[in-house]
Design brief:
- It contains 2 helices and 2 strands.
- It is of the alpha+beta class.
- It has 2 domains: 47 residues, Pemi-like Protein 1, Chain: D; 47 residues, no CATH class.
- The chain is elongated.
- The termini are far apart.
Length: 94
């Protein structure tokens, strides 16, 4: 399927309804925009939020269910690094 879209003054495009239905893209969904090795712009309906995982995992304190999953993972890493550093400091002071 080839569809031509127009870029607005603010850089926005409209994804055709047929593709939105086919890929279950709804209003408010986040999409991943990348450039492939040939210089083509690739748009993927591939982002998830913590709300998609509701009930499967416990969120960190201060993390909202609509936060981007990548941000949650990065924050969890930072918390874990801080915990490990504190543990190492405690061991070194003994």
């Amino acid at each position: 399927m080839i569809t031509y879209v127009r870029v607005t003054g603010s850089g926005q495009i409209t994804i055709p309804a047929e593709l939105r239905r086919k890929h279950n893209i709804a209003t408010g969904d986040r999409l991943v925009v990348t450039e492939d090795d040939r210089g083509r712009i690739v748009v993927k309906p591939n982002s998830r939020t913590a709300a998609d995982l509701d009930g499967k995992f416990h969120l960190l304190p201060g993390v909202e269910a609509d936060d981007d999953l990548g941000n949650i993972v990065a924050e969890a890493r930072e918390v874990e690094i801080e915990r490990i550093m504190a543990q190492m400091n405690d061991e070194n002071q003994r």
